[in-house]
Amino acid sequence: xxxxxxILTGDRPTGSLHLGHYVGSLANRxxxxxxxxxxxxxxxxxxxxxxWEKDENLSRDVFQIATDYLAAGIKPEVSTIFIQSMIPEIHxxxxxxxxxxxxxxxxxxxxxxxxxxxxxxxDMTYGFLGYPVSQAADITxxxxxxxxxxxxxxxxxxxxxxxxxxxxxxxxxxxxxxxVLVGDVPRLVGLDGKDKMSKSLNNAIFxxxxxxxxKQKVWNAVxxxxxIRKTDLGHPEVCTVYAYHQVFNKAEIEExxxxxxxxxxxxxxxxxxxxxxxxxxxxxMRERRQSYLEQPDLVKDILxxxxxxxxxxxxxxxxxxxxxMKINYFE
Length: 331
Description:
Structural class: mainly alpha
Largest sheet: 3 strands, parallel
GO molecular function: ATP binding; tryptophan-tRNA ligase activity
Keywords: Aminoacyl-tRNA synthetase, ATP-binding, Ligase, Nucleotide-binding, Protein biosynthesis
Family: Belongs to the class-I aminoacyl-tRNA synthetase family.
CATH topology of the largest domain: Rossmann fold
Protein name: Tryptophan--tRNA ligase
Number of strands: 5
Catalytic activity: tRNA(Trp) + L-tryptophan + ATP = L-tryptophyl-tRNA(Trp) + AMP + diphosphate + H(+)
CATH class of the largest domain: Alpha Beta
Radius of gyration: 22 Å
Number of helices: 14
C-alpha cells in the first residue's frame, strides 16, 4: 500500500475565519483531506506575537477556529487538528533553526514588513520577528510534503524550504522540503474594495455569519460609483460585488458581466443574486456548526485526540533531528 503524502496547514487563532481564508486555503484542505495525510495546526503561540496583551481571549479563539474548521467540512476522522503550544518539540526545533537563520533574512521578509505595518509595530519583538522560523518548525516537524496557504504566506514557505536545505546540508538529510499550494483565489478583496479581506480591517464576511448578516454586508459592499440608475452602463472591473461573483458564481459570470455593462441589471438585484450564492455556500457550514456547538465536549475530544496524535509524530521527527545533530547524548 502506497503511503499517503502529508499536508501541514493551519491558522493563528485571532478570530473567526472568513471567506478569504476559505478560498485562499481552507477549501483546498477540505478537498485534499482524503487524498493526503492532513495535519491542521491551531498556532496559538504565534497568535501571541500580535495578541500577547489579549491572551484572555485565546482559549475562546482556539475552540472557535476548531469549530470553523469542522463547520467548513474538515473531517476529524481523516484530518488531525491539533494545538501548537501542546507540542513542545516544535519549540525545540524552532530554537535549533534560529541558530542558523539570520535576523537580516527575517527583517527582509515581505510578509513580516506588511504585518508589522498593519499592527503598528515600529519596534518588532523577538517573537514577532522570528515567527516565520516557528512556522518552519511547524511544517517540517511533520515532514509535510505540501502546504496549502494564502498568497501572503508564500515568503514563509520559501524560508521553510531554505531552512530545510540548510539543515540537511549542515547535518543529515532527514527533513522534507515542502511544496506550496495556493488556493484558486490567492487574495480575496475585502468588502471595502481597498484591501484584502481581514477581520482587523472590518471588511470581512465570516464563515459563521448568519444569512441576514451576509445580506447586510453585501448590501454595504462597494460597487461602481458611476452607476446611479439601474439602466446606467456599468464597469464591473471596479465593483467588489462583481469580484465576488467571479469567485462564488463562476457559472453565471459572463451573464453577470454582460448585464452590468449593458445596464440590464441594477446593483440591488446583483447584490441579491450574490447574497443567494454566498448563503448557498455557507448554509451547510451553518448546519454543521450548530451540530458541534451543541456538543462542545466533542470539539474538545477532537482537539485532545488530534494533539495526542500530532505529538507522537513530532517526537519521532525529533529523534531524527537530534541524531542528525549528534545531540542524542545517551544513545
